[in-house]
Amino acid sequence: MQSQDVAPRHALASGPVDVEQAEAALVEHYPRLVRIAYLVLPPGLGRGRRVLTAHSLVQRALPRGRKQASLIPAQASGRDGDPGYACLRERVLRAALAAARPRSGLPRLAQLPPLLPQVWGLKLFPRSGGADELALDQRLSALSGPARAAYVLRGLENLPDAGIRALLEAAGVDDPGGALAAANGVPTQPALLSSSEFDPCSLQVRPTDLMRRRQHTKAALAAAAALAVCGALIALPGGGWGPDGAAAPVYAENPSAEAALDPAGLTRVSPTAWETSARTDFSVWPARGPLTGDRDLLRRALAVWARPGEAVRVSATPGTQTGGPAGPPQLLYAGQVDNVRVVMLYDGLRIVRYAEPADGTQGAALDFARVDGATGAEAGALVLGRSDGNVRYLTAPWVRKAASRDLMKPDSPATPLTVSGGVTAPLTSPALQPGRCSSWTVLQLTDVSGTRLSTDLGELVPAHLTAGRPDSAGEAVGARGLRDWAPFACSLSAERSAGIRSVNAWAYADQPLPDGSGAAGWVCTRAETWRGDGTAALAQFRTPGGPVGAVVAKGTDVRACGPRDPHVLAGVLWKSRAGHWYLLAAGDRDTASIRAKGGVTAAGPGPLLVARAEQGARADLGGTLTDGRSITGLR
What we know:
By secondary structure, this protein is an alpha+beta fold.
């Protein structure tokens, strides 16, 4: 249970920092600064490169002049009151975030491979932790760089939200509030952040390619280098693509693996297969797009999937494996989307999107999404590409009509979308609009089974939106479903890039306010993931006439508000127009009684509770269902 309208803290600005102060702080706090850099750097670099890059960033963090003014208005205290540490922390954070940003044009210094330190012939990586550390690392990998930074500053540095926001602004983050909101989705675990799993100063050492180095002579290395140069000149006469594009060198010869890399072996489904099949999933999607016959493009896509090189940006939804195909995958699409050539593939468990610049420049992207068990609405569309704040979808062959709709305007009609070859015209993507939420555009698809809504949350597969009681939820396109979603659409931003399969909104209670100003609405939104764990239930509260709702309680990996346990209880501290504070609590219709203890002691029959309270009071909620079972409140 949370209180509304909590005033932020403000701190004093810091003064100039001497280079000698910074040097002393670097020596004293070097392991901690390297740990911060390691945690903020993108996981896609790999553990070994992240270690070296983290050390490199910290070693380059010292100011170059005699004095360096700290730009952090809320961090004068630093580490135990050390302004030198505060200055270094801001510089390390700025450099780590710069390394995490996508490259455009020439790479920045922080995005270049580290010059020093370097270790030849050895791999260095932190010691492995347990299952808890691995789970936390997977959750952090799903966050953006600023969100990881916010999480680390809160859990490792123990900074308040106001201080984190100021530090992120000083480090050049455009949307600190969005980063904090995304970080809130991962439980704070300071003990795990301090473990050896995330300690880049306590390392394990392994050889790189020992057997190969022992077998090769200097003459063989020189011949290989000459052959590589000649091959590059022949394959890339104009700076274009080689046979395998951005793939890494071939490292194994396996008949099954080689068969999976042959464009001629790709599975291609008949355009009419879905009409007679009992299945409505990706397995009956035909191959579409003008480049399905481009064998060179398809070969590059398969080769990069099997062995992505250093120039390939790899991303995956949480819980999705990124290994190569076990056999020939199914081709879903090959064509050009805006300025990118795109190939969409399906291996029965995952959707894989390969993208390369259409102008032939180097670099490629490889995105993975888990889709096991997808059917119907969940297999209705895929994201082909995003650019200029818009998104294009590839729709299922059974889709008859496509339209866009502003989820925050339930009474406005849907806007029809042109669909050509299964590809929609561009529509606004809420995943590309961080910051203030004034609209939320969703995709509306109509087929023989009805009309459904999906939303882009920054992944390959849009999330299916439903509405109603969790054990009997229906499509959100009805008048009531749209009204239920409208004030709470912006809460979907908390689920970006979290591997979300579907999100349901359930208006479970209306509560008359004690000052007679009307009835407040209670809604529970629950996000289900493709991997099963990581589900998020949010209790949201909306006062009469309020344009949007406020999240007042949440639970991760709980059964509340879900199909297995369609019950929910939550509370909020609310201030009346007369200035009085109240504890308001509400459960669903099956709640027989509610009780509060702690900062507020009260009890009452039925699914609603109102009690006078003091500002800032905290209470623990419990209740009893009509069948006698106990229920606890979301916190």
